[in-house]
Amino acid sequence: MKRHLKILEFALSSLGRRKYKNLAILIVYAFTVSVLASILLVSQSLRMEASFLLREAPDLVVQTVRAGRHDLVPTSYVDEIAAIAGVGEVKARYWGYYYDALTRGNYTLLGIESTLSELPMLEGRVPSAPGECAIGAGVADVMQVVNSDDLFLIDSNNIGVAFEIVGVFRAESSLLTNDLVTLLNEDLRLFFGLPEDRATDIAVEVFNEDETSTVATKIKRALPETRPITKSDLLKTYDAVFNWRAGMMLTVFSSALVAFCILAWDKATGISAEERREIGILKAVGWDTSDVLELKFWEGMAISVTAFLLGIIAAFAHVFVFGAPLVSAVMKGWSVVFPEFRLTPYFSLYQVFVMAFLTVAPFVASTVIPSWKASVTDPESVIRT
Prior knowledge:
Mean pLDDT: 79
Order of helices and strands: HHEEEHEEEEEHEEHEHEEHEHHHHHHH
Largest sheet: 7 strands, mixed
Distance between the termini: 34 Å
Shape: elongated
Helix content: 40-55%
Number of helices: 14
Strand content: 15-25%
């Protein structure tokens, strides 16, 4: 153990003698890891936020499609769907999007029933009378309003409407309620000018989760103009979207990956004359080939682990402290007009191991392999070159 510690100490002092070169390598290496980790952390956090959001989602959502576009669904479909075997509670839902030009925020307006007594993660109470609303924390921050204040919105007739704020959401997941404004169903229907016999979509409860696809097929067969969407379909869509955006971001930052590849290739194709001379001297004074390889292994590990940890720390601070300003606009998509929210930290050890395998292992290998050739060469010829 003492011999290994001495070799490690010598490796660190050897790196210090070439500090400027190794510092440049460290900066490029750490930057590459930071970019990769930032993209993966944002993607993983948004994916986890989406799964948390959909945890309480209905088993089936039924929409009407006209000319390939989402259209309002007739409320008469509620009774027809409820008559299908295996179906539980069926509700018509009222919701829509509202863009506020003053704050440049895109909000989700959701209708609720007047009989609802409470909502989770709500400070205050739910709307129970016409003209009342409950809002998400992001809306409260952007609008600079609190409980008992009035929320002013412009309805479909271009008329200003005031709603009294009776509750503010403080959700475990920011993505769940951050942009949310809840109104009574009737208030929302009047605000958007929806016909009395139409709803935005229909939420369907399925008693047996394994029969969700079967129920969806029955609904499609009975109501051909509808589009049943299962909870699993929504999760797959979110995964596909975030994976695609993460891949696009990796493509944008491919220059950093190219720089790292060039760096690793340069080290793999040979070592400098100074390093070869150092290896020859070590062999001449009695070092074994295994000692030389261990020395180079520790040099590569010291740079790799330091750069990797610095990159991970920088990525964590970039994403969860500063809000990922370099990648969030692309990863969130339309949320460039979304009220600002902080991502909830989700850290996957699997991703850390994958990044370490793809960055640390190649760099250490590119440090050790070229040194092996020099270490098995006659020390006198190596010193003279």
